[in-house]
Design brief:
Length: about 260
């Protein structure tokens, strides 16, 4: 159905109605549907924080507009926080990706920034279990992409790992792991327990485990335990780590990478 050119409020309403029955719609399809330019769609969404969001070239419903529980992690809300720090981490992390790698890209709001900096012509295999990361990876034409299925959790856009699936059989060259909290005493943690099985299984099957954490995660402890800090071969952050963290990592021959 073709919708004639309209006011912004009408366009937002139309897109919201379309997304009642599906997870996402590509921005080019949305522009064609509304008979406007892609730039118009981008402007509408940028100035519409309570309705829709743009992820990897796709328009999706903004979960934070529907679920705004205090203390609840929402990846849609995290997308706009500490973006410059995440961008710097993404650039550093992408430099580790090599031709022929088989890589697990974890869920979260930092991981898509890694994908942004991977060269378009690089050939690699990517495995992921979250929608926002999948939408980014599918834009890389030379990426062999595997999405792990399972129960879908809207708040963090994750498909829950349920045993005896692809993660058990793949051996990864690298795994980019995200976290909600980093502590030298309590280890690496995240908000949601349903994320942990996939993270721990991947780390068991990966040659190189890489932690992505901006400085706001340091000395934070969340409910769901992932692993101790010394389980990682690389820690990539936007600022230098405290001495206690650096000492612990160096004792286990791990590398700390920052842009400062």
């Amino acid at each position: 159905m073709e919708i004639p050119k309209s006011r912004k409020s009408d366009r937002i309403k139309s897109l919201t109605n379309v997304l009642q029955g599906q997870i996402a719609i590509h921005i080019s399809e949305a522009a064609e549907l509304l008979d406007v330019s892609e730039m118009t769609i981008r402007r509408d969404i940028a100035n519409n924080p309570d309705g829709l969001s743009l992820m990897g070239g796709y328009v999706t419903r903004d979960i934070s507009a529907q679920r705004n529980e205090i203390g609840k992690y929402l990846v849609s809300a995290e997308n706009s926080r500490n973006t410059e720090e995440k961008r710097r981490i993404g650039k550093l992390a992408a430099a580790l990706v090599q031709k022929g790698d088989t890589i697990f890209f974890d869920c979260g709001s930092t991981t898509p920034f890694v994908i942004d900096f991977i060269p378009t012509d690089l050939e690699f295999t990517a495995v992921c279990n979250s929608l926002n990361v999948f939408l980014k990876l599918q834009e890389k034409p030379n990426c062999n992409l595997i999405l792990c299925g399972g129960t879908y959790y809207r708040e963090d856009m994750v498909f829950e790992y349920i045993g005896a699936q692809v993660l058990d059989t793949i051996r990864f060259s690298k795994a980019f792991i995200s976290a909600g909290g980093v502590s030298d005493r309590f280890g690496i943690t995240c908000f949601n327990l349903h994320e942990v099985p996939a993270k721990t299984k991947v780390m068991q099957n990966s040659q190189t485990n890489i932690l992505l954490a901006d400085h706001t995660k340091l000395d934070k402890v969340r409910a769901a335990y992932i692993a101790d800090l010394d389980r990682f071969d690389f820690v990539i952050s936007d600022k230098p780590l405290p001495n206690a963290y650096t000492t612990l990592l160096l004792e286990h021959d791990a590398h700390v990478v920052t842009d400062q």
